[in-house]
Design goal:
The structure is a single chain. Helix 1 runs parallel beside helix 2 and helix 2 packs across helix 3. A 3-stranded parallel sheet has the order 1-3-2. It folds into 2 domains: 44 residues, no CATH class; 66 residues, Rossmann fold. It is built from 4 helices and 3 strands; from the N terminus they run H-H-E-H-E-E-H. By secondary structure, the protein is of the alpha/beta class.
Length: 111
């Protein structure tokens, strides 16, 4: 990739400029949405710190696997893992976690 897609060119600078705002971007399938939020996420990871630093939530296992695959290909100096297990699942050891909202709720005790 040498040139960002339209959604990437619009979203990456906005996300990088803010540490506290929430964003909503919409684009068609195949437009580069995963890297539009994935690149800013990767840029926030401290590769020397093995603890979880980014959590990305998606609503289906298929989408979780797709997002994790794209991030793993783009991020060579940080670890990405998928968490879709049950309440008894151990906490992951990766800087970027891609999961479903229910897993997050289970790990936090349902709060």
């Amino acid at each position: 990739m040498t040139t960002p897609s339209k959604i990437q060119a619009m979203s990456i600078p906005s996300i990088n400029a803010s540490q506290s705002e929430n964003f909503l971007f919409q684009a068609t399938n195949g437009s580069g949405k995963t890297l539009a939020f994935g690149i800013p996420a990767i840029m926030r990871v401290d590769a020397s710190d093995p603890r979880p630093q980014v959590i990305i939530m998606a609503n289906t296992r298929e989408l979780i696997r797709q997002v994790a695959g794209v991030l793993q290909a783009a991020c060579k100096k940080c670890n990405v893992t998928i968490c879709i297990g049950e309440k008894e699942a151990k906490a992951p050891f990766a800087q970027i976690i891609v999961s479903v909202p229910a897993w997050i709720a289970n790990m936090s005790g349902g709060r």
